[in-house]
Specification:
Layout lengths: L12 E4 L6 E6 L14 E4 L13 H4 L5 E5 L14 H18 L5 E6 L1 H9 L6 E7 L15 H10 L3 H13 L3 H8 L4 H6 L4 H7 L7 H4 L6 E6 L4 H13 L3 E6 L6 H4 L1 H12 L3
Parallel strand pairs: 3-4, 3-5, 5-6, 6-7, 7-8
Antiparallel strand pairs: 1-2, 2-4
Helix pairs in contact: 2-3, 4-5
C-alpha cells in the first residue's frame, strides 16, 4: 500500500533566526478542500517536544480550508538547523521572526499562532517580541506553579542515562510515559506509526527542553504577562498538572479563556481532531 500524499508543501520557506542565524523551515499546509482563505490572518502551527511539523498532518489540512496555514520545524528538528547553545528565549525569537515574515506577506498584517505543549509555551513567549501576533491557541503548554512539576521523580535522570547509552528509543518512551502519560499499549501503537523514527531521532532534544521549561523565562510570571487573547485548550483525561498549569496561567493572562475537550488526553490534535479544529476556528474567527 502506498503512503498517502503529504499534506505539506514540498519546499519549505526558510526564515533565519535574528539572533544566531539558525535556518528555520516553515511548510505551508495544503487544504483538505478548497475554500476561501483570504478573510483570516495566516495561522502558524508550532509543534511540541520530540515532534516536527508533521505532527499537524491530521488537523492542519482541515484548518487550511479556511485560512493559510503554516507549520514550523522548530530549531533542531526536521529541515531546520540548530545551534550549539540552547535557551527557550531563542525559540521565542524564532517564532517572532517567522510571524513577522508571514505577516509581511499577508493582507491582514498579523498572524495567529497555535502551539501544542512546549510549542504553546514558545508561542506565548514570542508574543511580547512582536506586534505581528494577533491571537494564540495553547494546547496544554502552560507552566505550572512553584512546588508542582510535570516531571515524575527520577524522570530527568532516567532520560539522561538512556541518552548517555545511546538508547534514544528508551529515552523517548521514558519521556512519553512519564510526562505525557502514555500507556504501554499506546506506546506500542505509536511505534508502528511512520513518524516514530523521526521522534526517536529527536530524542536528544528532550533534556534541553525539559530543563528550559523550568527556567524563569518560561515561568507563569513571565508568560502571564502576555496581553493578546489566548485560548487555553485542555484534555479532560490528561494528567492533573496540565489542568493545574492551565488554570494558573488563565488567572494571570489579561485575555484568556479555557476550553476542555472531553475524552482527550495530551494529543487531541490526533485523537479528537474535529473537536480541536472546531475550538481553534471558533476562537480565531471571533470578531
Amino acid at each position: 500500500m502506498s503512503a498517502p500524499p503529504s499534506p505539506f508543501g514540498e519546499e519549505p520557506r526558510i526564515v533565519r533566526s535574528p539572533t544566531d542565524g539558525v535556518e528555520l523551515a516553515v511548510f505551508e499546509v495544503l487544504p483538505a478542500q478548497t475554500g476561501e482563505t483570504g478573510a483570516h490572518p495566516p495561522l502558524l502551527l508550532v509543534h511540541g517536544a520530540t515532534a516536527d511539523h508533521t505532527t499537524w498532518r491530521t488537523v492542519g489540512p482541515e484548518l487550511a480550508a479556511s485560512r493559510r496555514v503554516f507549520a514550523i520545524d522548530r530549531r533542531g528538528r526536521g529541515a531546520s538547523g540548530d545551534a550549539a547553545e540552547y535557551a527557550i528565549e531563542r525559540e521565542y525569537e524564532d517564532l517572532a521572526a517567522v510571524a513577522e515574515a508571514l505577516a509581511r506577506d499577508g493582507d491582514a498584517g498579523n498572524v495567529d499562532l497555535a502551539g501544542h505543549s512546549y510549542g504553546g509555551r514558545c508561542a506565548l513567549g514570542a508574543s511580547p517580541l512582536t506586534p505581528s501576533i494577533r491571537r494564540i491557541v495553547v494546547y496544554e503548554g502552560a507552566p505550572v506553579p512553584a512546588g508542582i512539576s510535570y516531571r515524575p521523580t527520577g524522570l530527568v535522570e532516567a532520560v539522561r542515562a538512556a541518552l548517555g547509552r545511546g538508547a534514544n528509543e528508551e529515552a523517548l518512551t521514558t519521556f512519553l510515559a512519564g510526562i505525557v502519560g502514555m500507556s504501554d499499549a499506546e506506546l506500542d501503537a505509536y511505534r508502528t506509526n511512520p513518524v516514530w523514527p523521526a521522534r526517536v531521532a529527536a530524542a536528544h532534544t528532550i533534556l534541553r527542553e525539559v530543563e528550559a521549561e523550568a527556567s524563569p523565562g518560561a515561568s507563569l510570571e513571565a508568560l502571564g504577562r502576555v496581553t493578546v487573547p489566548v485560548l487555553l485548550l485542555l484534555g479532560s483525561v490528561s494528567r492533573s498538572p496540565f489542568r493545574i498549569g492551565t488554570d494558573a496561567l488563565a488567572a494571570r493572562l489579561a485575555h484568556a479563556e479555557v476550553r476542555v475537550i472531553e475524552g482527550a488526553a495530551h494529543a487531541a490534535h490526533h485523537t479528537h481532531a474535529h473537536e480541536f479544529v472546531a475550538a481553534v476556528e471558533a476562537f480565531l474567527d471571533r470578531p
